[in-house]
Design a protein that fits this description.
10 helices, 6-stranded mixed sheet, two-stranded parallel ribbon, Protocatechuate 4,5-dioxygenase, Chain B, 280 residues, alpha/beta
């Protein structure tokens, strides 16, 4: 059967894409940020998944206020790179795994999750920045990717508990897929940041560190965290962190933390990254 062997989280700050694409990754400002993923690049080269289920949020590239699915899944064989206003990023298109994606869609829907099935989807920096951080810029991405967009842009987003439960449903779906596949689940977005208003630039390192700690040792506490606490403590865009709970729910009850990286500032945000391995 297919199996989930690791979970990865990463911020998806768009300025990271600009720095990489413009050849500024070795600038004094950006060097420590990219260096924070050196361990992860070596690790994933030794533990390359067949498929990554990548949980991210679209930034008005594929969706608009006319259509806002809470949970969606890309079921195509290929996903092109979105033009976010300055041309598509110069990165490879994303190759999907349609058979597994359709199986997950069927399994989660019958498991009472209302997934929106997407057969044509252009993916933006929310998905491609984590790929760049983990893989650099190969001619083709070394793994297949199933995009799972989550609405964290238009209120109301799903609760952390609902995201965690979706992760559990994804785990059941993967484990019932008959093909022998090594699968990772990635959660992206976050950490503390606010992009507008009088609190623009807000960073709460104490909140971020506690979130990382609990992600490993006490996800039950994070499941209960209300929307207002994310916004009050860590800024309006920190709500993206609920997507990390999809990953955590998919790993099972017990995990081992393999690596952690946290850096401030990255553009006007806090960058967080963690690698977890299920132990049961």
């Amino acid at each position: 059967m297919a199996r989930i062997t690791a979970g990865v989280t990463s911020s998806h700050v768009p300025a990271i894409a600009a720095a990489w694409d413009q050849g500024r990754a070795d600038d004094d400002y950006w060097r420590p940020i990219f260096a924070g993923f050196d361990w992860s690049k070596k690790w994933i080269a030794r533990n390359m998944p067949d498929v990554v289920i990548l949980v991210y949020n679209d930034h008005a590239s594929a969706f608009s206020l006319e259509l806002i699915p809470t949970f969606a899944i890309g079921c195509a064989d290929r996903f092109e790179i979105a033009d976010e206003g300055y041309g598509p990023r110069p990165v490879p298109p994303v190759e999907g795994h349609a058979d597994l994606a359709w199986h997950i869609a069927q399994s989660t829907i019958l498991d009472e999750f209302d997934m929106t099935i997407i057969n044509k989807l252009d993916v933006d920096h929310g998905l491609t920045v984590p790929l760049t951080l983990m893989f650099g810029q190969p001619e083709a991405w070394p793994t297949r990717i199933i995009p799972v967009p989550v609405n964290v842009v238009q209120y109301p987003p799903p609760t952390g508990n609902r995201c965690y439960l979706l992760g559990q449903a994804i785990r059941r779906a993967v484990e019932s897929f008959p093909e022998n596949l090594n699968v990772h689940v990635w959660g992206t977005g976050g950490m503390s940041h606010q992009l507008q208003g009088p609190r623009a630039g807000l960073i709460n390192t104490e909140f971020d560190t506690a979130f990382l700690d609990r992600l490993t040792t006490n996800p039950e506490a994070l499941r209960k965290l209300p929307h207002v606490e994310y916004v009050r403590e860590a800024g309006s865009e920190a709500i993206e962190l609920v997507m990390w709970l999809v990953m955590r729910g998919a790993l099972g009850e017990h995990v081992r933390e393999l690596y952690r990286f946290y850096h401030v500032p990255t553009s006007n945000t806090a960058l967080g990254h963690i690698v977890l391995e299920p132990t049961s």
